[in-house]
Every structure is written in structure tokens, then in C-alpha cells.
Amino acid sequence: MKKPLQFYNFLFLIVILLSAPLKAQDQSDSQRMKWFKEAKLGIFIHWGIYSVNGIDESWSFFNGYISYEDYMKQLSGFTARKYDPEYWAGLIKESGARYAVLTTKHHDGFALWDSKWSELDVRKTKARKDLVKPFAEALRQQGLKVGLYFSLLDWSHPDYPNFLRNEKRYETDPVKWQRFVKFNFDQLKELSVNYRPDLYWFDGDWEQSAEQWKAKELSDSLRQWNPNVILNSRIRGYGDYATPEQGLPVSRPKDKYWELCMTTNDSWGYQHNDHNYKSANQIIRIFVDCIGLGGNLLLGIGPKADGTIPEEQEKILKSLGKWTKKHEEAIYNTRAGVPAGHFYGPTTLSADRKILYLFLDHRPNGPIVIKGLKNKINRIRVVGNGTKLSHKIVGKQYWSDVPGLLYIDVPENSLDKDVSVIALQLDGEISLYREDGQVIECN
Ligand code: GLC
Questions:
Q1: Where is this site: May be important for catalysis (predicted)?
Q2: Please, how many CA atoms are within 13 Å of residue 312, restricted to the half-sphere of its CB?
């Protein structure tokens, strides 16, 4: 039986009506995520009492490498005597980062602010005062976004079930658990109201389920307290972006937004014995890999107990800053580059998709090559020094739509000592040939 036209019109209307709120949600999400997507680089600051002895944050007592009592003795050595948040913010800005995340409370439960809801905080140390507020203010003064790290689990809290790897406070006790959940909500409301963070970086969600944390309710509340707040995904899936840790993704993660968090040496917090630093060159190369795959890098530093930043870390941030400043047009506000196969290295694209940036981390042995690019080239130049480069197209056949190979000569004297960036200004939005080269089977 033929259905009347009105029926299809009606169906169409229903589909439109149903998808409209989804579309609107999508738009407001991308509006909210905009600064994060464009920021590319953040600095992750692990600061807590573990910097006193220079041992693993929280895990050292949880895993039994030090007794809980001895771990807590570090409270008396945490002075923050030379804490200079304006200096921190200046250095962060100089590195080229657009946001920073501070551990307001790690798994050990020690709060860097004077919490109404806990005894275990800065007032138990010689620092005595709120260390989070001046941090947030100094960042904002530099135009940087403020991120607060918060561990959902708290191995010190009397109402929290887990204490040490081989010792629990209790198995099930709904009264205690509900008290703990309320405590988490209370502390987070305190942080939200006092510091209005732009981003929360949760951690430690793995020990309980979404229902136990009340993750849905929590994320709703956080968004109510700070309507534009961004949440990382370590809140049992109720967050906005994925957080691969230490391991650089090899292919583009499926999540729309992601951020690799990585230490500069092998520790999150300050450890006087850890000198295994990555070089600035390695970090720059990791960074371009991240942005080429559409992600951010959140680079870790660990200040000392007196609030000073270790010299090696400061040096890394400054070197990174020189490079990011020189190449800023290829970094901020860009989008993920072209898929692997077109160029031997990471790439990014300008927001209008009309400039392709190539990242070159080696001295080329002859001209560099781009494959499968259908566009015409308006101009090729070296970012940061303006040198114009010439190119040649090789192997284009008039009877085939497979693009030729684009060869670009990059003279030695225009190379950057770390990663050189070449900008290809195209005649329009990038257009790629993504097929197999029109293979002709012979047998
Ligand atoms: C891990 C660790 C923690 C560290 C964090 C940073 O989840 O538990 O010590 O702070 O990673 O990503």
C-alpha cells in the first residue's frame, strides 16, 4: 500500500525534532571545549608532602615502601617557604602552555588548601595557608586556565574503605560509605565555589564503581556549580576527555578530545634522586606527535617542599617555550593533521584547513616528499624564519587522477635545531587522494 506524502513529511519532522536537542548539545559541548582543544599544552603540577622525602606520591605508603606514620611525618617538612605562584605562572606562560593543573589533593588525602571538611591539610604544615587560591589567581592574571587535580579516593580518610594494599578499614559499611561520598561532594563544592576552576582533573576512580561514587550526580553538580567546567574522564566515564598516561598514542585515539599526561623524568612529584629527564628535544617531538593526532600534552613538573621548581624542570620549560613561541602558528588553534602515509612525520592543519604544517624532526637526506595531495600550492615557507621554499611535482600523469609526488627542498640553514616546521599554503581546503594508486592486476 502506498503511504501518503504527508506521512513521510511527518516522519521527517519527527526525526528533525528528535535530533535538534542532540545537535544543540553537541554545539554547546564544542563551545565549552573550545579553549581546551586550542590550548595544546598544559603543565601538570604534583605538589604535596611527598616532596619532602622525595618519594612516590601516596603510593609509597599504600604499597608498603614506607609506613603510614613515617609518610605523614613529612607534614612537618612541607614549608612552601619560597612559594612564588606569580613566578610559577610566568614560567608556565613562558613554556607556551595555556593551562595548568595542580594536585589539590592526591590519594594520601592531604589538601593543599585549608578545607572546612578535613583536618589533613596545609594547616598541619609550616605552610599554614591556602596554597591553591594564590595559584589560581596568578594563573588567571597571566590569562591561563586553571585546572584542579582531585583524587576521588582518599586512603587517609577514616570513612574510606581502602587504606593499604594489604589492609582495608572495612569491606561494606553503607553508613561510613555514604559519609565519605558526602565528604567528597563537600570538598568539591568548596573547591568549585572558592576557586571556580576551568577544569577538574580527577584520579583514583578505579577503586569504586560509578554508582558508588555517584559519578553522574557528581558531574551534574560540578557543572551546576561551574557551568563551563571541563572534566577529565577519570570519573567513571562522566567526563569530557580521555587521559592516556605516559604512553604516547601511535594512532589517533577514537575520543574526540584527549590529553597525554607525561612526566619530565620518571616521577610525578619531586624526587631528588630522579635525574632521568627527557631532553627538551624529546619532549618537543612527543608534543608534535600529540598535536598531530589532535590531542594535548599535559607535561608534569614536581616542585620541591619549599615551593621552588627544580632547575632541570625549569630549563625544560624554557627550552620548550623558545620552540613553541617560534612556531606558534603551527600549534595553537590548529587541528589534527593528515593521516599517516602522506608525509613521514606529524602534521597539523590550520583551522580553515588551507595550510598544512609539516613537522620535520631530522635533517632530510634530499628533498622532503608529500604524497597524495590534490591541491595546488600557493606558497611554501619555513615557519619562524620566513624562508620561501621551492618545490617540484614529479610523476603526475595526465591520464590519471593520482597526484604526483611533491618534493620540497629544505636548505640546511633554515632547519630548526629541534623540530623544523614547513607551512604549505594551499589553493583551498586540503584535498587528499586516499586510494591505492589504481593498481592494475596482471594475473
Ligand atoms: C596515576 C597515579 C598518580 C598520578 C596520576 C597522574 O593515576 O595514581 O600517582 O598522580 O597517575 O596521571
A1: 261
A2: 17
Domain ranges of the chain: 33-326, 334-426
pLDDT value at residue 1? 47
Burial pattern 131-158, b for ≥16 Cβ within 10 A else e, equals bbebbbebbeebebbbbbbbbbbbbbbe
Ligand 1 in contact with 422 (CB < 6 A)?
no
The pLDDT value given to residue 443:
57
Q: Tell me, in angstroms, the distance from the centre of ligand 1 to residue 372's CA.
A: 41
Q: For cell 553522574, name the residue.
A: 216
| Coil, helix or strand at residue 73 | helix
Tell me the fold of 334-426. Immunoglobulin-like (2.60.40)
* Segments in the chain below pLDDT 50: 1
Q: Cα of 342 to ligand 1 centre, how many Å?
A: 36
Please indicate whether residue 57, judged by its CB atom, sits closer than 6 Å to ligand 1. Answer: yes
Domain 33-326 architecture: Alpha-Beta Barrel (3.20)
